[in-house]
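call fold(seq) -> tokens
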Amino acid sequence: MQSQVVENKSNESVNHSPIIRLMANFFSYVFHPILIPLYVTWALAFIHPTYFIGFSAMGKYKILLLVAINAFAFPMIAILLLKGLGFIDSIFLKTQKDRIIPYIASMTFFFWTQYVLREQSFVPRVLVAFMFGVFISSSAALIANIYYKISMHAIGMGGLLGLFLVIMQQNTMLMTGPLTVAFLITGLVCSSRMIVSDHRPKEIYAGLLVGLICQFIGAAIHL
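ret:
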């Protein structure tokens, strides 16, 4: 039955034009979940008017570099090493089996990132809360992976939306524009995954829900 569902999805995807599939791949790569912490850190540091007030440009870039190394470079290196050693079949993590060790490795690096940020009192707590949300969402994804292949892209988009909703609740800046953009990007990315991946709708919706809830938990603990 499951193979029939996958086959039906594959048949449906053939109907999409090459341009639509190209755009779907573009959004999938540009908004890959491993890149979301970088985008969020940059937005908080350089777009939000108050969270990083008093920081020099160099200070902001140091925080961005810290996140880039710990939450992006190290997980990517781990995945490449796993592929080189034969522990996973593809760096694209297409199967549930391939995702187990990368989830564990990423969880470790995400936890370390939020710990380092948390121990530096001058770092805005909203960034600490976000990274803690990223850590627990990756933990939830590992558990969900036992039962089905939850969408990592949807988790990333849910985390982005969750953070923006938290910022809106804090009333530190007008969020009408940013939230509109976030909803638009979320729709584009999730639609893209429906087109160029074998995810079922429930895996997309579950990912969004996990990302949202984990950000709310992070905010409740650290803000």
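The chain has one domain: 2-222.
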